[in-house]
Design a protein that fits this description.
The structure holds three protein chains of three kinds. By secondary structure, chain B is of the alpha+beta class. Chain B is built from two helices and four strands. Chain B has a two-stranded antiparallel sheet with strand order 1-4. Chain C is an alpha/beta fold. In chain C, helix 1 runs parallel beside helix 7 and helix 3 runs parallel beside helix 5. The termini of chain C are far apart. Classes of the chains: A alpha/beta, B alpha+beta, C alpha/beta.
Chain lengths: 249, 72, 352
């Protein structure tokens, strides 16, 4: 019997607390698989700030620390500066990275910190029950935008990849989605490329993952992945926004 | 046609139906009869004979609850 | 080792490096700018790393990461900057990590002024973040003490796996005095940092948790912390007694304020007053022992560069609030010796 697919050693057996169909679980798997395949599980350190994924420490089978809301890039900077040979990653949601933590992520990228950020963009605050996030789409409902986000009052969603790619310290920036098997395959390649960028010591890398939040979107998991495809991807185009790995090699 | 086995960890499955939705061969369905310890109705590989080993179900499973093997 | 003339802020750097500190995360703020500046010059020479953070909030969270990774590391700032660091200090305390934080206090509240002050006593000694926790707080009165305390702070932080705050002020930061950079007399048996984030290296993953969603679990964390604090309170009460043997009245003062009080004591002694000074060296744990067996003291005179923050602890320690008088100048104003002498004479009522 040839095993075609099995759980990676990079994940523990702990049952996740995520809601049914929440694609956090997929992204956790991709990160863990990449680290396992790179032989880096023994050297990996995750920094999980406040958000649904603050409990990722229980699911990743490698070192981890829970950081303050928005401050993971700073905490990761401290760790990476002490252990330049370890694989240091932050796993952050959109409320964490693009709202309270915007200053930290911008400066970590500008400094070219050799860390990898996995940025989960599901357009909402998940852990706290569905409030509007900086990435909430125009017209999209949230508990603090009950009539739908009105850009004249609550402004426009932020496209993080485009923004961070303007910084010279950023060496690999790509936006992916996990709304279909094909996209999941591409997402894994992107995460692997980002981690390789770190391993080669080139500079800052970030993968933005368009992800779902069935509970707070008020959708079934299947409707949620459809929403990613039909609503989120058009506003947040997938693709590579920075790739200086070629000229560096 | 090669034979595949799709093993679903029923205890971890949360019945989200992503696997059922993305399976191109309608192999999987939700077992409405008995729920697991957490009260979810898990998926199961009812029509395993149709499986072509594309791994879509496993790739879309957020709980990493699906294991796929191929008989040589 | 010969003495060298050093400015306080630079002495912090020399001392920290002597103690094995190899990482500093800082941000510009008067009156402590020479600390990040000098670290940026000196750390590369010893294979260390200096990072100028984008804010004090980022700096303390970088420190959280560096000490979690097992390094000797520190940050420094001044009053409003230290206010921004409170949440991070709370995280470090909860995770029981060894971090050194220097606060060169300046006038407050708000943006305040840039002159020296002691108005962060409550923020640093009573702890300004959420939850029940304690910072070990050391209060140098001169540059030699600053050096000794910074060096010992790294040992104490590692020994107790707890943040240590060096509570000094702009005067200490900007003043120059001859100092000797030497290892502390107190040799501590350092616990191994088995918890440090170094990668699991084939073993069990290291996990530094800061969130306990289970209330009973978090209460247990609190109970364990307070067992540790009780040990620190027992072992680390430290203070100086100046001319207290036959004193009937006692000043209580710390840091640079105590220098002015020392001169006032000398002057009052010359005029025949039986007065001395109790000077806390560590503000937490507060030296309650200094007040034991001192029922004969008629009045305590608390002098601070603030509107009075340590004064409450003096009332508690001597267990008689009616015995405690306060004199202070705020906003960065430094009292003169004469002011302190006049205040004392009113309190002592001409009791030569």
């Amino acid at each position: 019997m040839a095993v075609l697919f099995e759980k990676t050693k990079g994940m523990t057996d702990v049952k996740t607390h995520y809601c049914p169909g929440c694609t956090h679980g997929i992204v956790h798997r991709l990160v863990a698989e990449c680290l396992e395949e790179m032989g880096e599980l023994d050297n990996a350190i995750d920094v999980s700030p406040v958000g649904c994924a603050v409990l990722a420490l229980n699911y990743f089978n490698f070192d981890g620390i829970q950081a303050a809301h928005g401050r993971a890039p700073a905490t990761a900077t401290g760790i990476k500066r002490v252990h330049p040979d370890k694989m240091v990653l932050t796993y952050q949601g959109d409320g964490d990275l693009a709202s309270i933590g915007m200053c930290e992520i911008v400066h970590a990228a500008a400094r070219g910190e050799k860390i990898t950020t996995i940025f989960i963009n599901n357009g909402i605050y998940g852990m706290t029950g569905g409030q509007m996030a900086p990435t909430t789409l125009p017209g999209m409902k949230a508990t603090t935008a009950p009539y739908g986000r009105d850009v004249s009052l609550q402004g426009y969603p932020i496209r993080v990849c485009e923004m961070l790619s303007t910084l010279d310290g950023s060496k690999y920036i790509e936006r992916v989605a996990v709304d279909s098997p094909a996209n999941v395959i591409k997402a894994k390649k992107a995460i692997r490329k980002a981690l390789e960028t770190q391993k080669a010591g080139l500079g800052f890398s970030l993968i933005e993952v368009l992800s779902t939040c069935p509970t707070n979107w008020g959708k079934t998991p299947v409707e949620a992945v459809k929403f990613v495809k039909e609503e989120m991807i058009p506003y947040y185009p997938l693709g590579v926004y920075k790739d200086s790995t070629k000229e560096e090699e | 046609m090669a034979k595949f086995t799709v093993t679903i960890n029923e205890d971890k499955c949360k019945g989200c139906e992503l696997c059922v939705h993305f399976c191109p061969k309608d192999v999987l369905e939700i077992d409405k009869e008995n729920s697991n310890s957490s009260g979810y109705f898990p998926a199961n590989a009812k029509h395993i004979e149709n499986c072509i080993g594309c791994l879509s179900c496993a790739r879309m499973c957020p709980e990493i609850a699906i294991r796929i093997e191929k008989e040589d | 080792m010969a003495k060298i003339l050093l400015k306080g802020n630079e002495a912090v750097v020399r001392a920290a490096i002597e103690a094995g500190c190899r990482y500093f995360f800082g941000y510009p703020i008067t009156p402590q700018n020479e600390i990040p500046e000098y670290f940026s010059k000196e750390l590369p020479k010893v294979g260390g790393t200096f990072v100028q953070a984008e804010s004090e909030v980022a700096a303390i969270n970088m420190l959280y990461g560096a000490v979690a990774a097992g390094a000797r590391a520190m940050t420094s700032s001044s009053s409003p900057g230290v206010a921004l660091k409170q949440e991070g200090i709370g995280y470090i305390s909860k995770a029981e990590l060894p971090a050194v934080i220097v606060n060169m206090m300046r006038g407050g509240p708000g943006l305040g002024s840039i002159q020296p002050s002691q108005s962060d006593y409550n923020m640093c000694v009573k702890c300004g973040s959420n939850g029940d926790y304690r910072n070990i707080v050391m209060a140098p009165g001169n540059i030699q003490e600053l050096v000794d305390m910074v060096i010992e702070a790294f040992d104490m932080a590692d020994y107790y796996t707890n943040p240590v705050v060096i509570l000094a002020d702009g005067l200490i930061g900007q003043m120059m005095e001859p100092v000797e950079i030497k290892q502390p007399e107190v040799k501590r048996e350092m616990p191994e940092k088995t918890w440090a984030l170094t990668g699991k290296n084939g073993g069990e993953p290291h996990r530094i948790i800061n969130l306990n969603l289970d209330a009973n679990e978090l209460e247990q964390v609190n109970i364990e912390l307070f067992k540790k604090y009780a040990v620190i309170e027992e072992n680390e009460q430290r203070y100086e007694e100046y001319k207290m043997d036959d004193a009937e009245y006692a000043f209580v003062s710390y840091g640079t304020a105590s220098r002015i009080v020392r001169s006032a004591v000398n002057e009052l002694r010359n005029e025949g007053y039986k007065v001395g000074m109790i000077r806390p060296l560590l503000l937490w744990p507060f030296p309650e022992k200094a007040f034991e067996g001192k029922d004969h003291i008629k009045k305590y005179m608390d002098v601070e560069f603030s509107m009075g923050q340590m004064v409450d602890d003096v009332k508690l320690a001597c267990n008689d609030k009616h015995k405690v008088e306060f004199y202070g100048r705020a906003g960065g104003v430094i009292p003169s010796v004469n002011e302190v002498v006049d205040f004392a004479k009113k309190v002592m009522g001409g009791a030569q």
